[in-house]
Amino acid sequence: MRKTLLRKVIVSYFIILSISFFILMTVTYKIVENHLITEKKELLKKEATILANQYISAYNSGSMNSFDISYLITILDQSLDTRIWFANRHGELVLDSRNEIAPYRNINLHSLNDEIIYKHSSSTGDFYGFFNGEFISVGIPIMTKSAYQGSIFLHYDILTIKEKSSIIYTLGLITLIITMIISVSFIIYFGNKIVKPINDMNDAALKYANGDFDTTLTVNTNDEIGQLATSLNTMAFELSKMEELRRSFIANISHDFRSPLTSIKGYVGAILDGTISAQHQDKYLNIVYDETERLNKLTSDILFLTKMETSGLNLNYRTFDIHSVIRKVTALFEQKCLNKNIKVTLMLDKEELLVFADIDKIQQVLHNLFDNAVKFSYENSYITIETTQLREKVYVSINDTGEGIPCENLKYIWDRFYKSDPSRGKDKNGTGLGLSIVREIIKAHNENIRVFSTKGKGTEFVFTLLKSS
């Protein structure tokens, strides 16, 4: 599997290169062959003209005998590798540079085609069936004082040209083989530089699938592979973080369910076996009731967050007075504030301030934030709730003067089951889900929420809402 991609690249390269070579060499071969044939025809015409004008004319005038001309055309045949014929004025073949005229002695060229006797001609083929192959044939009439004296024919075997053209094919094939060897070497070298990181990423992905997120990819490139490796490393980090949150979630939810269940079981058992007397049962039944309420709230909060993640939060938008909701929420905590002697100050922008949102969800946000403010405020301290307007937004601030949150812990406060007190002793009635719910509600409204806190001085939460026009 590891070499499949590289093998595909090499095979594809071979196929493309071979097809390209075949097409290129075939076209080149034909072009070169046609060029050589044309060039050879022109050369044969030139030689035939010279031979006719200078030597054959001399023979006809008596200055050169048949032996001399026979010797001459034999030498010229060997020099040009061209068969030479001479036909007299009657169209009869009388000389052959290769002394093979006997089979054609009784053939009269006039009976074939007058054009090959009286005119300059050139053709490619078997020359009217005289040869058992393909030849370039050039004919030149011999004229003396405008009188026809005969014709000279030069025949060149095209097979010789094809053999020369095939050399190009052979050289091309050798070049192809050398090119393939060099190219494949480069492909293997550079291919491994690509395939190896991909294989490493594949191995890492398999490890991630099995829950091992500790593998880190190292790719020192800025190309797409380097970007992919960086993305996988980021994904592994996020998956590791999610896995840690999942384990923490299970541990926290187990703890938060176990504690009230243990209390309920212990008190109910004590009542049933008579350990708790009848006159004290009401007290402990109230404790059991409070614990069941705590379990109910925890379950509701978990179901709420789960529903938001799976199907989203359905918001019922309407226009309402945010000041009225603030007053209603603070009234619910009046007794708790009195118990800790906490003074609540409302710094509201005006008597009525209309916003456009889901009133029930925003009331839940205010309830959770104010509950935290009361819970973590010192005795004899104060809480301030303030509203301001800026353009199309309304800013709601809840500021306490309690113990505050350490700076390094601020980024964790939105996590489920997170509690700022590691011992969990100061907030035994909390679920650790309140701020997670707050953030999800505000996000569902496409609004923002921020937190500012100083250890030992207090915490301020500020969120925005859309002002109603």
TrEMBL record:
It is found in: Cell membrane. InterPro entries: HAMP_dom, HATPase_C_sf, HATPase_dom, HisK_dim/P_dom, HisK_dim/P_sf, HssS/ArlS-like, Sig_transdc_His_kin-like_C. Its EC number is 2.7.13.3. It holds the Pfam family HisKA. It catalyses: ATP + protein L-histidine = ADP + protein N-phospho-L-histidine. It is a multi-pass membrane protein. GO terms for molecular function: ATP binding; phosphorelay sensor kinase activity. Residues 357-469 form the Histidine kinase/HSP90-like ATPase domain. The chain crosses the membrane at residues 12-32, 167-191. Keywords: ATP-binding, Cell membrane, Kinase, Membrane, Nucleotide-binding, Phosphoprotein, Transferase, Transmembrane, Transmembrane helix, Two-component regulatory system. Residues 245-311 form the Signal transduction histidine kinase dimerisation/phosphoacceptor domain. Residues 192-244 form the HAMP domain. GO terms for cellular component: plasma membrane. This is histidine kinase. It comes from Natranaerovirga pectinivora. The lineage of its organism: Bacteria, Bacillati, Bacillota, Clostridia, Lachnospirales.
